[in-house]
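look at this fold:
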Amino acid sequence: MTSEEERRASRRSFLRGKIFAPQEEAGEEAPETGPIAESSVAPGAYLIQLSRKAMACQFEVYLNALGPGTETEAGIAALDIVTELEAQLSAYRYDSEICRLGVTAYLRPQVVEPQLFRLLELCVQLHRDTRGAFDITAGPLSKVWGFFDRDGKVPADTDLAEAMQLVGSNQLVLDHDQRTVFFTQEGVELNLGSIGKGYALDRCRDTLVEAEVADFLIHGGTSSVIAQGIRKDGVERDGWEVGVPHPLRPDRRIGTVHLKNEALGTSGAAFQAFIHQGKKYGHVLDPRSGRPATSVLSATVIAPNATLADALATACYVMGPQETEELLPKYPGVSVLMVQEGKRRGSVETIMLGEMEQRLTLC
């Protein structure tokens, strides 16, 4: 058997058992925090689910099981893109293009792969628009706080000040004509953790659209979701019904929204945090102060694409309601849900900006 035949056989094996009945027929309770809300699902409405671990989470593609049968190959091709992007974008792989730039780009301008260069241009624009709340050079902060190694700690003031010297996307010099990036000092590094999953989802969407797959939903770790077309389950729907996670209770949702040819991203720190001397420190850091952001419990963004939804969810979480409201005129078509602590212990309050009030159905 040739390597190509082995690959196809492996893919056929991978697909076995991946057609799922709706909750009523499967005989099991669907996880409430999954990206697809299963309420009002018609009997016999099947989904094809493909999954792969990448970027420290589970990526999943959902397809209506009503097509000509070629969608599954396109779905796996989309997941292949995620694997390739992880090798390019990971801050945890010394041989990734992102890490190599940290070693060479302060010496001389470095030519960057075309699509990655466009992503870096967007990141610099987001840094300007958010007044520094979104910053892909904040990796040194994640390291000094121990979040990079998942071993949280409160840094000494001197260590934090030293890390802050390396933070700021204004230290990236991009040459559009030459497609190069230059770092103005040694020690500057890139970490695309706040935008990488969304970018990967958009690339997956492009692959499926090019394969003429009309209807699908893809998520990366459930916090980043993109949906195209509609879910065909015998119920009249306007897109795909997606659950918005509760920031304090992983077994619950705040509500649901319908996505069609758009994306959703959620940022929060409730479940990636550590306690020090009775105080909780979350992993989402404000690049402007160098300290954990504390304005809200979570921020959820609906946007035309997943790259923007992912990035703005992080930025809005850092900025809080007032700054976010000031930002939104620059991004038409974006809606934001912010969740804050309520007046009673364990309760929450919601703040809806843009058209979120019309989009969200609260649980």
Q: What stands out?
A: The longest helix spans residues 71-89. The two ends are 53 Å apart (CA to CA). The first strand starts at residue 19 and ends at 20. Confidence is low (pLDDT under 50) at residues 1-33.
